[in-house]
Amino acid sequence: MGLVKRIIRSRAVQEVLGLLVAGYLKLVQRTNRFVMEPADAYDRIEMPVIAAMWHGQHFMIHFARRPQDKAASLVSRSGDGEFNAIALRHLGVRAIRGSGARGRDIRKKGGAQAMRAMLRALGDGEMVVMTADIPKISRVCGQGIVTLAQLSGRPIVPVAVVTSRRIDFDSWDKASIGLPFGRGAMVLGDPVPVPRDADGETLESLRRAVERELDRVHARAYDLVGSKDPGAKPSSVLMGGSRA
Questions:
Q1: 35-81 pLDDT, tens digit each
Q2: Residues 32/180, Cβ–Cβ less than 8 Å
């Protein structure tokens, strides 16, 4: 590891950077005129829930959390994850460290440990926020979030948060971060409950339902701010159904 990377990943520097990012996100939240759809979204769900997002929404998704709601967010064990965890702490969100392991050692990635921690959080009344898509495969819902819902008995609520003024990054997940002084939209989808006794066919059907609803709320959020979603799937994919 080079000297610059060691400095950036030092605890002191990451604490400062995390604080600065959290402060910037609070500025974005305060200076954008947000609408929520549906307006009574929180009257229609019973906490705690599993808030699902697409990768790339991790900067913005926490705007949709009410101040009174306790929340924990799944954050990877990587160096970037440490920085994100610090920023989340300053935003009032507890970090649970770990991630999925597509084809890799799940113990090294902390997936099993993170699953247990998320189940404890939901059992203690904390909302859990996590990305639904498979690592490095954008906007394809993985099985992990559906398994969490099945084991916990708590529903999945797809969420999208978009601002009219923003920076869209040319990354695999089409990450986006809002800019101040614009308009914003927060769209909450229909809850997707997962029965504890669901068989494999039912779980696959519900995985696809979460994927479709996440695509829908993203499309609606971008429509509300008059923008085009840079990460939207081609129409041929949407017409042909979700990818496996």
A1: 999 999 999 999 999 999 999 888 899 999 999 999 999 998 876 77
A2: yes
117-130 burial code (b ≥16 CB/10 A, e <16): bbbebbeeebbbbb
Full strand arrangement of the beta sheet holding 33-37: 33-37, 183-188, 156-163, 50-53, 127-131, 71-75, 94-97
User: How many other CB atoms are there within 10 angstroms of residue 19's CB atom?
Assistant: 14
Q: Rounded to two decimals, what is the model's pTM?
A: 0.90
Express as a percent the part of the chain with pLDDT over 90.
73
Domain boundaries, the chain: 3-230
232 CB neighbour count, 10 Å cutoff: 15
Q: 3-230: which CATH topology?
A: Glycerol-3-phosphate (1)-acyltransferase (3.40.1130)
Cα–Cα distance measured from residue 201 to residue 30, given in angstroms and rounded to the nearest whole number: 44
Q: Is 112:147 a contact under the CB 8 Å cutoff?
A: no
With H, G, I as helix, E, B as strand and everything else as coil, classify residue 74.
Answer: strand
